[in-house]
Design goal:
The protein is of the alpha+beta class. It contains eight helices and eight strands. It folds into two domains: 57 residues, Arc Repressor Mutant, subunit A; 170 residues, GAF domain (Beta-Lactamase).
Length: 258
Amino acid sequence: MTVVLESTSPVVTRPPSMVERMTLIMDTFGGSKSRLLLEEIAERSGLPRSTAHRILEQLIRLHWVEHDRVGYRLGRRIHEWGARENAHSDLRAAAATWLHELALRTELVVHLAVLSGAEVEYLDKVGGRRVMAVASRVGGRAPAHSTSLGKAMLAWLPPEKVDALYVDGLPASSGPGPRTMLELHQELSRIRSSGGVARESDECVTGVACIGAAIRGPEGPVGAISLVGTSEMPLERLAPLVRDTAQRITRELFGSRW
Protein backbone atom coordinates (compact mmCIF):
# COMPACT_ATOMS: atom_id res chain seq x y z
CA MET A 1 0.00 0.00 0.00
CA THR A 2 1.30 3.41 -0.95
CA VAL A 3 1.04 6.07 1.71
CA VAL A 4 0.75 9.67 0.51
CA LEU A 5 2.02 12.14 3.06
CA GLU A 6 0.46 15.62 3.04
CA SER A 7 2.90 18.47 3.02
CA THR A 8 3.10 20.40 6.26
CA SER A 9 4.98 23.31 4.68
CA PRO A 10 3.17 26.63 4.97
CA VAL A 11 1.67 28.03 1.78
CA VAL A 12 3.71 31.04 0.72
CA THR A 13 1.68 33.80 -0.92
CA ARG A 14 3.32 36.65 -2.71
CA PRO A 15 2.59 40.06 -1.18
CA PRO A 16 0.53 42.32 -3.43
CA SER A 17 2.48 44.67 -5.65
CA MET A 18 2.73 48.38 -4.91
CA VAL A 19 0.12 49.10 -7.57
CA GLU A 20 -2.24 46.54 -6.00
CA ARG A 21 -1.73 48.02 -2.53
CA MET A 22 -2.35 51.55 -3.80
CA THR A 23 -5.51 50.31 -5.51
CA LEU A 24 -6.69 48.64 -2.29
CA ILE A 25 -6.27 51.95 -0.47
CA MET A 26 -7.97 54.06 -3.14
CA ASP A 27 -10.89 51.62 -3.18
CA THR A 28 -11.56 52.19 0.52
CA PHE A 29 -12.95 55.66 -0.23
CA GLY A 30 -16.67 55.63 -0.90
CA GLY A 31 -16.70 58.85 -2.92
CA SER A 32 -15.13 62.26 -3.37
CA LYS A 33 -16.46 63.50 0.01
CA SER A 34 -15.61 60.36 1.98
CA ARG A 35 -13.26 60.91 4.93
CA LEU A 36 -11.50 58.06 6.66
CA LEU A 37 -9.12 57.60 9.58
CA LEU A 38 -5.90 55.66 9.12
CA GLU A 39 -7.29 52.76 11.16
CA GLU A 40 -10.36 52.57 8.91
CA ILE A 41 -8.25 52.54 5.76
CA ALA A 42 -6.01 49.79 7.15
CA GLU A 43 -9.04 47.70 8.17
CA ARG A 44 -10.90 48.12 4.87
CA SER A 45 -7.84 47.49 2.71
CA GLY A 46 -6.56 44.57 4.77
CA LEU A 47 -3.09 46.14 4.87
CA PRO A 48 -0.93 46.60 7.98
CA ARG A 49 -1.33 50.03 9.53
CA SER A 50 2.31 50.94 8.87
CA THR A 51 2.05 49.90 5.21
CA ALA A 52 -1.17 51.87 4.70
CA HIS A 53 0.41 54.94 6.32
CA ARG A 54 3.53 54.73 4.15
CA ILE A 55 1.54 54.45 0.92
CA LEU A 56 -0.84 57.23 1.97
CA GLU A 57 2.13 59.56 2.49
CA GLN A 58 3.21 58.89 -1.10
CA LEU A 59 -0.32 59.45 -2.41
CA ILE A 60 -0.47 62.76 -0.51
CA ARG A 61 2.78 63.95 -2.09
CA LEU A 62 1.34 63.18 -5.53
CA HIS A 63 -2.00 64.88 -4.66
CA TRP A 64 -4.09 61.70 -5.10
CA VAL A 65 -5.05 61.94 -1.40
CA GLU A 66 -5.35 64.83 1.08
CA HIS A 67 -5.05 64.73 4.86
CA ASP A 68 -6.30 67.08 7.58
CA ARG A 69 -7.36 66.80 11.23
CA VAL A 70 -10.63 65.12 10.21
CA GLY A 71 -8.96 62.34 8.22
CA TYR A 72 -7.99 61.30 4.72
CA ARG A 73 -9.95 62.07 1.55
CA LEU A 74 -9.44 61.89 -2.20
CA GLY A 75 -7.21 64.69 -3.46
CA ARG A 76 -7.38 67.32 -6.16
CA ARG A 77 -5.71 65.13 -8.76
CA ILE A 78 -8.72 62.79 -8.76
CA HIS A 79 -11.09 65.74 -9.20
CA GLU A 80 -8.95 67.23 -12.00
CA TRP A 81 -9.07 63.95 -13.89
CA GLY A 82 -12.82 63.73 -13.47
CA ALA A 83 -13.35 67.33 -14.55
CA ARG A 84 -11.13 66.87 -17.58
CA GLU A 85 -12.98 63.72 -18.63
CA ASN A 86 -16.36 65.45 -18.28
CA ALA A 87 -15.12 68.51 -20.16
CA HIS A 88 -14.11 66.46 -23.18
CA SER A 89 -16.77 63.73 -23.12
CA ASP A 90 -19.14 65.63 -25.46
CA LEU A 91 -16.33 66.29 -27.94
CA ARG A 92 -15.22 62.65 -27.96
CA ALA A 93 -18.80 61.43 -28.38
CA ALA A 94 -19.50 63.84 -31.24
CA ALA A 95 -16.27 62.92 -33.02
CA ALA A 96 -16.27 59.13 -32.59
CA THR A 97 -18.28 58.13 -35.68
CA TRP A 98 -16.51 60.59 -37.97
CA LEU A 99 -13.02 59.62 -36.76
CA HIS A 100 -13.68 55.98 -37.57
CA GLU A 101 -15.17 56.86 -40.96
CA LEU A 102 -12.13 58.97 -41.83
CA ALA A 103 -9.77 56.17 -40.75
CA LEU A 104 -11.68 53.62 -42.86
CA ARG A 105 -11.73 55.83 -45.96
CA THR A 106 -8.03 56.73 -45.81
CA GLU A 107 -6.55 53.68 -44.04
CA LEU A 108 -4.48 56.11 -42.00
CA VAL A 109 -4.26 56.92 -38.30
CA VAL A 110 -6.60 59.69 -37.14
CA HIS A 111 -6.09 61.84 -34.03
CA LEU A 112 -8.48 63.92 -31.95
CA ALA A 113 -6.85 66.46 -29.64
CA VAL A 114 -7.43 69.62 -27.62
CA LEU A 115 -5.18 72.55 -26.85
CA SER A 116 -3.63 72.50 -23.37
CA GLY A 117 -1.49 75.58 -22.95
CA ALA A 118 1.27 75.44 -25.55
CA GLU A 119 0.73 71.70 -26.08
CA VAL A 120 -1.86 69.44 -27.64
CA GLU A 121 -3.37 66.63 -25.59
CA TYR A 122 -4.51 63.55 -27.49
CA LEU A 123 -8.08 62.50 -26.67
CA ASP A 124 -8.51 59.73 -29.23
CA LYS A 125 -6.52 57.74 -31.77
CA VAL A 126 -8.02 55.35 -34.31
CA GLY A 127 -6.70 53.54 -37.35
CA GLY A 128 -6.90 49.79 -36.90
CA ARG A 129 -3.70 47.88 -37.52
CA ARG A 130 -1.75 51.06 -38.26
CA VAL A 131 -2.29 52.55 -34.80
CA MET A 132 0.70 50.85 -33.17
CA ALA A 133 3.03 52.21 -35.86
CA VAL A 134 2.42 55.80 -34.67
CA ALA A 135 4.14 56.73 -31.42
CA SER A 136 1.39 59.00 -30.05
CA ARG A 137 -0.92 57.79 -27.26
CA VAL A 138 -4.25 58.87 -25.80
CA GLY A 139 -3.47 61.18 -22.88
CA GLY A 140 -0.08 62.05 -24.33
CA ARG A 141 1.06 65.52 -25.32
CA ALA A 142 3.08 67.20 -28.04
CA PRO A 143 4.20 70.79 -28.80
CA ALA A 144 1.35 72.72 -30.40
CA HIS A 145 3.55 74.80 -32.71
CA SER A 146 5.10 71.73 -34.37
CA THR A 147 1.96 69.63 -34.93
CA SER A 148 -0.80 70.09 -37.49
CA LEU A 149 -3.33 69.63 -34.66
CA GLY A 150 -1.83 72.45 -32.62
CA LYS A 151 -1.32 74.85 -35.51
CA ALA A 152 -4.88 74.25 -36.71
CA MET A 153 -6.17 75.41 -33.32
CA LEU A 154 -3.65 78.22 -32.80
CA ALA A 155 -4.67 79.68 -36.17
CA TRP A 156 -8.12 80.54 -34.82
CA LEU A 157 -6.95 82.13 -31.56
CA PRO A 158 -6.47 85.91 -31.31
CA PRO A 159 -2.79 86.72 -31.96
CA GLU A 160 -2.36 88.10 -28.45
CA LYS A 161 -3.50 84.78 -26.97
CA VAL A 162 -0.94 82.96 -29.08
CA ASP A 163 1.75 85.36 -27.87
CA ALA A 164 0.70 84.73 -24.25
CA LEU A 165 1.31 81.02 -24.72
CA TYR A 166 4.91 81.70 -25.78
CA VAL A 167 6.03 84.56 -23.58
CA ASP A 168 9.59 83.18 -23.68
CA GLY A 169 9.51 82.49 -27.42
CA LEU A 170 9.21 79.15 -29.19
CA PRO A 171 11.06 76.15 -27.74
CA ALA A 172 14.26 75.28 -29.58
CA SER A 173 13.69 72.75 -32.35
CA SER A 174 15.84 70.99 -34.92
CA GLY A 175 12.87 70.38 -37.22
CA PRO A 176 11.85 72.46 -40.24
CA GLY A 177 8.93 74.19 -38.53
CA PRO A 178 8.63 77.80 -37.30
CA ARG A 179 11.49 78.93 -35.06
CA THR A 180 10.37 82.45 -34.18
CA MET A 181 7.07 84.01 -33.25
CA LEU A 182 7.09 85.93 -36.54
CA GLU A 183 7.42 82.68 -38.50
CA LEU A 184 4.67 81.07 -36.40
CA HIS A 185 2.24 83.95 -37.01
CA GLN A 186 3.03 83.87 -40.74
CA GLU A 187 2.21 80.16 -40.85
CA LEU A 188 -0.99 80.62 -38.86
CA SER A 189 -2.04 83.31 -41.34
CA ARG A 190 -1.43 80.88 -44.23
CA ILE A 191 -3.57 78.26 -42.47
CA ARG A 192 -6.49 80.69 -42.15
CA SER A 193 -6.19 81.79 -45.77
CA SER A 194 -6.15 78.15 -46.97
CA GLY A 195 -9.44 77.30 -45.31
CA GLY A 196 -8.07 76.15 -41.98
CA VAL A 197 -6.02 73.09 -42.99
CA ALA A 198 -2.68 72.89 -41.19
CA ARG A 199 0.29 70.84 -42.33
CA GLU A 200 3.51 69.57 -40.83
CA SER A 201 6.23 67.24 -42.05
CA ASP A 202 9.22 66.06 -40.00
CA GLU A 203 8.53 68.78 -37.42
CA CYS A 204 7.33 66.73 -34.47
CA VAL A 205 8.68 63.30 -35.47
CA THR A 206 11.19 62.66 -38.25
CA GLY A 207 9.63 60.82 -41.16
CA VAL A 208 6.06 61.62 -40.10
CA ALA A 209 3.70 64.08 -41.78
CA CYS A 210 0.20 65.20 -40.75
CA ILE A 211 -2.61 67.39 -41.95
CA GLY A 212 -5.15 68.74 -39.49
CA ALA A 213 -8.18 70.97 -39.12
CA ALA A 214 -9.77 72.62 -36.09
CA ILE A 215 -13.20 71.93 -34.64
CA ARG A 216 -14.49 75.44 -34.03
CA GLY A 217 -17.24 76.63 -31.74
CA PRO A 218 -18.82 80.03 -31.15
CA GLU A 219 -15.94 81.03 -28.87
CA GLY A 220 -13.07 79.58 -30.87
CA PRO A 221 -11.39 76.22 -31.42
CA VAL A 222 -12.53 73.41 -29.10
CA GLY A 223 -10.38 70.67 -30.62
CA ALA A 224 -8.78 69.43 -33.81
CA ILE A 225 -8.40 66.28 -35.89
CA SER A 226 -5.47 65.11 -37.98
CA LEU A 227 -4.47 62.41 -40.44
CA VAL A 228 -1.03 60.86 -39.95
CA GLY A 229 1.17 59.55 -42.75
CA THR A 230 4.80 59.45 -43.79
CA SER A 231 6.75 62.38 -45.20
CA GLU A 232 6.60 60.81 -48.66
CA MET A 233 2.80 60.46 -48.77
CA PRO A 234 0.76 62.93 -50.89
CA LEU A 235 -1.43 63.94 -47.93
CA GLU A 236 -2.35 67.23 -49.56
CA ARG A 237 -4.99 65.51 -51.70
CA LEU A 238 -6.79 64.49 -48.49
CA ALA A 239 -7.01 68.04 -47.12
CA PRO A 240 -10.65 68.59 -48.25
CA LEU A 241 -11.67 65.33 -46.56
CA VAL A 242 -10.02 66.35 -43.28
CA ARG A 243 -11.61 69.80 -43.38
CA ASP A 244 -15.03 68.29 -44.15
CA THR A 245 -14.73 65.81 -41.26
CA ALA A 246 -13.86 68.61 -38.83
CA GLN A 247 -16.91 70.55 -40.03
CA ARG A 248 -19.14 67.51 -39.55
CA ILE A 249 -17.94 67.17 -35.96
CA THR A 250 -18.54 70.88 -35.43
CA ARG A 251 -22.15 70.51 -36.61
CA GLU A 252 -22.56 67.44 -34.40
CA LEU A 253 -21.51 69.54 -31.40
CA PHE A 254 -23.13 72.89 -32.14
CA GLY A 255 -25.90 72.14 -34.61
CA SER A 256 -26.41 73.03 -38.26
CA ARG A 257 -26.42 76.74 -37.47
CA TRP A 258 -22.66 76.67 -36.97
